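Q: Convert this sequence to structure tokens.
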Amino acid sequence: MEGEEANLRQIALLRRAVDVKPEEQGAMLMSFVFFFFVLSGYFILRPIRDAVAAASGVQQLPWLFAGTLTATLLFNPIFSALVVKFPARKFVPIMFQVFVSNLIIFYVMIRFVSPGENSTTDIWTGRAFYVWTSVLAFFGTSIFWCFMADVFRSDQAKRLFGFIGVGGTIGSISGSTVTATLAPIIGPVNLLLVSAALLELAAITVIYFPSSPRGVTVTPTGTRDVIDDEVIGGSVMSGVSSVLKSRYLLGISLFLILYSVGSTFIYFQQSDIVGRFYADRAARTTVLARLELTAQVLTIITQVFFTGRIIRWIGLAATLAVLPVLSMIGFGALGVMPVFATLAAFTVLRRATNFSLTNPAMETLFTVVPREDKYKAKSFIETFVYRGGDQLAAWLYAGLAAIGLGLTGIAFTAIPISAIWLVLGVWLGRRQAVLAAGETKQLAAVSNLSVIPQV
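A:
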């Protein structure tokens, strides 16, 4: 009896933080744990990757971005082929186990093959590691949110994605803390095995994921648990064709490209300033991890207390407008005061806003597209299109620098780009509301006709 009462108290406490229904709790909590493992594994690696970028110099970043773009282009058909042949509970773990295997290979290369820091082998292994870690960042996070868009409906996403994001934020904080604390003591290379273990746990989480709380899926044959479906099927290239045919998906693509342009501008300026002010790899890794940790602490406070409420109160369109407005202000401040303190404050606020508000809002956009597009088109957009945006921004930054613009001029150039991004975000939010209303009416009509029974 006491155990039952304690359980009820825990459920009541949980529902104070998030508007979750009893049938949604299992999937929501497992999603929380899944995201924790994904981002804790990645954020152990991120400062190590960024230290490689700072060591290479800002002039090498366009080439590193080009390598990442090429890698994502090659990786997308592999992912789509798995989607065609296997159900979600199988192809998602397979992808994470591929990441784990590659990470172990890098550990062996750096630990036993490379003759030492700054050697030719070390430099090229580091650049390959940069490309691979960037691919992991895009595909790992994208695959997680593909799965979430499949598991939850639009109305559920607006209520639950903010809380689920807390799991990722805690994972980010944990990963950044581990790297900031242990990198100076045991060296970055030994942290690769810790990351591999966490990514393997992410794969295991999917295998034991509970039934979807989506309730019903509209099919001619009846009710099915979407994540236990046989296979999604279709063709390997259908994701690309879906993006080209849909104004909505093209709009999402452009939204991500514009976000990527702003992020890349900040990233290049970060690499430039950090590379000049911090002399060695351990110092650069530590300061970057501390910036990441600060951003994640601010993120988790927002996610726990405000994200779900903000999206419901101001709507999806206004939520998608918050980060563009912040970017216009931040780039203006950076143009006036192009120093590390301004860059650090802008970076922390932008990352926190992205993780706590823009990312859950963006992922909600995909809950109203067909199931095949939730994996294939979504993955294509969030990997190749996003990476293509990075590449475009990298060469744009290099071009602006080549014509003589410094940090100030480039920062001011980003302001009108952010204004266009703002208008597009508002349109996408309004369009999603129309599509979600249509989906709700369709489900209600099917239920009333008893074609698919209520769950």
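Residues 24-210+236-448 form a domain with the Growth Hormone; Chain: A; fold (CATH 1.20.1250.20).
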